[in-house]
Predict the structure.
Amino acid sequence: MRPPKLPKDNELLKLEAAGLTHKEIAEKYGVSRQAVTKRFNNMDRYARQEYRDVTPLLPWDLTGHPDKDAISKHESMMGLRAFLRQRAQVAITPRSELALRAFLSHVLAGEVLELDPSQGVQWVRRDEGRDGSLVIRWPEGVPQDERTRLFRFSPGQREATAE
């Protein structure tokens, strides 16, 4: 096993804070820029940073799910997180805005997002008795609490949400 060429994580963070790019760090240590970026990603430095504030609000526990990464990156999940960020009055990126528009088109078409243990996330027809005004199908066995209000939507909110 060859010794690592890159320094410890805290040293990499200091170099980045000093203004060095990943390319410059790579050149300094004789590795590829991709190797440096991979180390930062492994530190969870950049991975989905913009969604960390809303992910704990989700009623679905994805820890240990075999398709956790695929589910998290799914377009509909990106739209859901953008919906939650917007409800919390937090700015969203242009990419998230596109995902939000696609998300809202499903909601306005009478669908809710559901997490199926075997199928992953999928759009299903709204069941008024079960789903009410929620944009997701709340999982059975998970009590609805104060965060439930963030998942409510009415067609009258369309104009305010799309801006």
